[in-house]
TrEMBL record, chains A, B:
Entry protein name: TrmH family RNA methyltransferase
GO BP annotations, alphabetical order: methylation
Spans traversing the lipid bilayer: none
Start and end residues of each RNA 2-O ribose methyltransferase substrate binding domain: 31-104
CDD domains xrefs: SpoU-like_rRNA-MTase
Domain of life: Bacteria
GO molecular function, one term: methyltransferase activity
Source organism of this protein record: Lapidilactobacillus gannanensis
Recorded family membership: Belongs to the class IV-like SAM-binding methyltransferase superfamily. RNA methyltransferase TrmH family.
The entry's keywords: Methyltransferase, Transferase
Length: 260, 260
């Protein structure tokens, strides 16, 4: 097994560049950190793992799993390399270079809904929404241009490995993507912070074939998207809060729609 | 109107100390920042406002409201004072010293539920839970010893002014507080990440008189609390996520229970 001891190693320098969006997009890869998420990758999507970088103490755990699957090679690293690569306060010394996902067409037989983020900005919100969409049994989460990059390290940390359970896409033209989904038989559900929209309690999707769109934290959904929705939903407010956090609204809606 | 120009002013130094938990507890006060939250305080709980600190450009807005209510005095400050007091990247130059709330007994006629945080640690989670509890029409949120301080500035930022719409309490002995609530006729609802607990879909509270307890991010509810609950609920997971973020689980449960 290859071992890299120095943080100044050329390969480590190249991998560290994946902390920048520009290089992630050039490479089509991102850097994943932490045993929990990497275990999810090994168990669910080993083909996406291009490289594993592991300190000695985690090596037995990692190789026991990695040897059974089609993951890329493992390199042993030192604590000094971990310090260079890590973006967390208490790093575990386990990293992976992950290939960003390709569009995967889901089966039309048992359609599952999609969650769509229209320019959501906050990394914690976006990552949490992926985790919640996973729990709610969604097919995937679509990120738009102009919002946070799904492979930003803070987003990825909040996903907690859920990106290996569902599809995560980034699409250049959200309206086009949504209209194509409608042609494929999906209902388009928007969300508005407006009591004149449809109370979520009064709506039931026709099937699991729907796309639920949540908008930007400050500005909500773009009006040109709201205009093409089949329905725009709102979450009722019983108290005096003006609105809900976007990740919270998404969770309440996803569960409400799935349980209806 | 008094004007303070220097960040080295003795009163400003004392106010800045409220950024530390020790001084907040000594004084029974906390420092609030930003026009949106301060407007909520002026509109809903002016008697809690001990002092307003405002830069010139916000003065007309603030005094127009403050003159109509029983808020404490207003002091004009400079941008240099704002820089010293602010904990945000783009400060608005509007601050208030707020008295922490006293226990308020709510009417027993139309009972509203309580949200209870058993050692929740993350400030964003805790603040968001207060905001969501407000939206869901809860009476208040109870913070326990051993969890994040409710008046930590990050918690307060995430509350977005909801602390002026409901009660926020910190209690030294959570179990005692809960048992006293039960004596007063409240149902005690715990939460567990365990499919052997009661599926939230199978449970309906007898009335609005209940306390819903959410646990620590890593360890969940303390077993000694779970043992005294009337029922322990879990949020069903349809996908492959191991669990939900605690603020997300709280939101799904609060809305599910309120809509049931």
């Amino acid at each position: 097994m290859q071992k890299i001891e120095s943080p100044k190693n050329e390969q480590i320098k190249q991998i560290k560049k994946l902390q920048q969006k520009k290089y992630r997009q050039q490479q089509g890869q991102y850097l994943l950190e932490g045993w929990h998420s990497i275990k999810e990758a090994l168990n669910n999507r080993p083909e996406q793992i291009k490289l594993l970088l592991v300190e000695a103490d985690y090596l037995p755990l990692v190789t026991a799993l990695a040897n059974q699957v089609s993951a890329g090679p493992t390199i042993e690293i030192t604590a000094r390399v971990t310090e260079t690569l890590s973006e967390t306060v208490h790093p575990e010394g386990v990293f992976a270079v992950i290939a960003q996902q390709e569009t995967v067409v889901t089966s039309a037989e048992q359609p599952q809904p999609w969650l769509v983020l229209d320019r959501v900005q906050d990394p914690g919100n976006a990552g949490t929404m992926v985790r919640t969409a996973d729990a709610a049994g969604f097919a995937g989460v679509v990120f738009s241009e102009g919002g946070i990059d799904p492979w930003n390290s803070k987003v990825v940390r909040s996903m907690q490995g859920s990106q290996f359970h569902l599809q995560v896409l980034q699409v250049p033209d959200l309206k086009n993507w949504l209209l194509a989904q409608r042609t494929a038989g999906y209902q388009l559900l928007g969300t508005l912070v407006d009591p004149k929209a449809t109370d979520m309690r009064a709506f039931q999707p026709a099937s699991g074939a729907y796309a639920l769109v949540l908008g930007n934290e400050a500005h909500g959904m773009a009006p040109e998207l709201a205009a093409v929705m089949d329905v725009n939903l709102y979450v009722p407010i019983f108290g005096h809060a003006e609105s809900l956090n976007v990740a919270i609204a998404a969770a309440i809606l996803m569960y409400q729609l799935q349980l209806n």
